[in-house]
């Protein structure tokens, strides 16, 4: 299933994309939460009830996918946990080229730094160095702590596309990356969550690509992660409890803008696409921050 957040008349809704239509789950059953994280918490990550609703959905619950106002796949995630330096070729093109990490590099993003599919990513007034990063994101389906390599995939509800937009000069101000990763509306997340049962276990072996104005900038495969999904979930849950609706963003391949000569930054008028095989295409136009 493709579970999608969307808005209608300024109200948040949750649906299932089916061909050229979206089944509005609240139109089938008014008791269904309008946030995927809440739904996952209520069901323990078991989405069979959603499948049942899709099967019995009347025609009146369907709306066109074309023209849909997308919302974030998870409207109110408690945690957005990100991995840096997870593809060796990306490590080699950056300032850490002589310091290959022995452990996952972990940082957090704020929800306010994200925009959904088709919404503009905003280049901030303070910097021209807005970079793209193609990433696969996973959505946690059930509470998880002290996972093992064997059971780690069982906590994954599904996968989405992520553009880890980074303001590079602010990222380099200190050894902590948080500022450069959290400017308002600089990252993309969407267009939906594809449930884990429709993809290879732990998202392994999927092509991942970024395109800027139609030109391929990054192209790799999730099988080339230095810390694959199983390993990163085991590492994370040594210390933190993952909750339903939490997002884990798994790192970007080589080819980012700062490593190019000359550097390539996203700017107003550009369109950036992130594609993950079997998941879909996240597309965002770029615009400049407006004067307040």
What is the count of helical runs? 6
- Give the CATH level 1 class of the largest domain: Alpha Beta
Overall morphology = globular
The CATH superfamily of the largest domain appears as Fumarylacetoacetase-like, C-terminal domain
CATH domain topology of the largest domain:
Fumarylacetoacetate hydrolase, domain 2
* Sheet with most strands: 12 strands, mixed
Number of domain modules: 2
Mean pLDDT: 96
Distance between the termini: 40 Å
> Helicity, in percent?
10-25%
* N-to-C SSE string, H for helix and E for strand: EEEHHHEEEHEEEEEEEHEEEHEEE
Binned strand content: 25-35%
Q: How many DSSP E strands?
A: 19
Under the CATH scheme, the architecture of the largest domain is Alpha-Beta Complex
Supply the helix-strand structural class.
mainly beta
Can you walk through the features of this model?
The protein has about 290 residues and is mainly β. It has 2 domains: about 1-70, no CATH class; about 80-290, Fumarylacetoacetase-like, C-terminal domain (Fumarylacetoacetate hydrolase, domain 2, Alpha-Beta Complex). Helix content is about 15%, strand content about 35%. It contains 6 helices and 19 strands. The protein has helices at about 25-30, 35-45, 50-55, 90, 170, 230-235, and strands spanning about 1-10, 10-20, 20-25, 60-65, 70, 80-85, 105-110, 115, 120-125, 130, 135-140, 155-165, 165, 185-195, 205-210, 215-220, 245-250, 270-275, 280-290. The strands form 3 sheets. Strands 1, 2, 3, 4, 5, 6, 7, 8, 11, 12, 14 and 17 form a 12-stranded mixed β-sheet that branches. Strands 9-19-18-15-16 form a 5-stranded mixed β-sheet, with no helix packed on it. A hairpin with a 2-residue loop joins β15 and β16. It is globular, with a radius of gyration of 18 Å. About 45% of the residues are buried. The mean pLDDT is about 95.
């Amino acid at each position: 299933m493709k579970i999608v957040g969307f808005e209608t008349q300024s109200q948040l809704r949750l649906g299932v994309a089916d061909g050229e239509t979206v089944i509005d789950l609240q139109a089938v059953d008014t008791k269904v939460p309008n946030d995927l994280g809440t739904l996952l918490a209520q069901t323990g990550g078991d989405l069979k009830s959603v499948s049942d609703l899709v099967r019995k959905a009347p025609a009146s619950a369907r709306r066109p996918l074309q023209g849909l106002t997308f919302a974030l796949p998870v409207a109110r995630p408690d945690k957005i946990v990100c991995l840096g330096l997870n593809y060796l070729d990306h490590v080699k093109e950056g300032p850490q080229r002589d310091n290959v990490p022995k452990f996952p590099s972990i940082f957090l993003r704020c929800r306010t730094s994200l925009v959904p599919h088709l919404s503009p990513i905003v280049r901030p007034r303070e910097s021209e160095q807005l970079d793209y990063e193609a990433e696969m994101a996973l959505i946690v389906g059930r509470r998880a702590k002290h996972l093992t390599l064997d059971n780690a995939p069982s906590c994954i509800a599904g996968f989405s596309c992520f553009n880890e937009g980074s303001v590079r000069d602010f990222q380099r101000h200190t050894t902590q990356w948080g500022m450069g990763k959290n400017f308002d509306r600089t990252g993309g997340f969407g267009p939906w969550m594809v449930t884990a049962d429709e993809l290879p276990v732990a998202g392994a072996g999927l092509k991942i690509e970024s395109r800027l104005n139609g030109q391929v900038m990054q192209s790799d495969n999730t099988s080339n992660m230095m810390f694959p999904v199983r390993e990163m979930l085991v590492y994370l849950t040594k210390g933190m409890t993952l909750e339903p609706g939490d997002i884990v963003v798994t790192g970007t391949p080589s080819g980012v803008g700062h490593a190019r000569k000359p550097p390539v930054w996203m700017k107003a008028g550009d369109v950036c696409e992130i594609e993950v095989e079997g998941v879909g295409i996240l597309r965002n136009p770029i615009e400049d921050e407006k004067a307040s």
